[in-house]
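Subject: sequence -> structure tokens, single chain

Hey, anyone have a minute? Need the predicted structure for the following. Not urgent.
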Amino acid sequence: LLLVEGGYLTIKTKAGELVPLILNAVQKRLMVLIRLRMSQRKPVRIWVLKARQTGTSTLCEAIGYAMTSQHEATNSLVMADDIDGANYLFGMQKLFQETLAEHLRPVPKHSNEKKLEFANIHSQVLIDTSDNLAAGRKFTFRVVHLSEASRFRDLRTLMLGINQSVPNLPGTIVIGETTANGLNQFYDEWTATEDAQKNGLTDWECFFIPWFEVEEYRLALTGGVMYPVEAIEFATTTDRENFLVDERLLKDRYGLSDEQINWRRWCIVNNCNRNVLQFNQEFPDCPKTAFVSTGDNFFDKSALGRQEAVKPIAIGNIVKENGKYVWREISTGLFKIYQFPQRNSQYVVAADPAEGLEHGDKSASVVLDKK
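Reply:
Had a minute. Here:
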């Protein structure tokens, strides 16, 4: 990790320059968590949900290269959602290798689009895509980087193999990082991890990166005047009013500066087709915004974004005891109670059996007060 933090590795900037990797604020915050878990002698298992262009992929690649190139008998896996993503990430690995100081650089044995192998130390970085559902089953890995995990075609099947291939030992790292992509398998994994993490029921952790943590997402005001809101497209006057209200709430909630709000307006107009929802998709402020703003939703996304999430007052199962069905609270139960039923009241039950086992959709039933 000193190799990563010390500026020994070289990256390609957005301007096309080769410069030393100096960690930004987001990368430093993630590195603090990784170092903490390693100092606690715990395996590192992190899901990262992020805004665009935060530098998370670069950090994960740097960690993978550093730990593989400087240790013997270490296998690392880099997995992307498609071949273009895999080639892009492998390009980072090759640049690290080619530009590393000679006294630190291991001798390469093989270097192609599938792997970067080092001579004498018996270590290698393997490259793959999520299309290979058997990836990870033939090797033992110490470092795994899953890039754009929300776009993996079958994340659940892949993780079953990868989790068995990485030993539950200190010094091992699995990081899955991604932007949101609707309410799919990654969403299920994220929400399940969030719930389990609160109760200390998992070694996995959720790590969210909002757009405003990126240092460069700021724009100075011209003559003290904000970027014109008139340049943003709104379907109705009410939408425009809601935008201004949401803007003030964002500023107050997160302590944002005028320069950050100014950049947000500029980005909506110039980089997101003048569409607020598209900005929220690419640059969310919280996990809820990230998931609601992506995917193919039936309900209006802007309206969904303004809904307050209602938490259940109890979670549990209905079990049979002494010939009677009774309610038993349990944090992993199948039933969520938002209001306990009242005697002599009337309720409506609606069910959607779906085709859960066949297509990954969820079967569900909902009980509503008839009033």
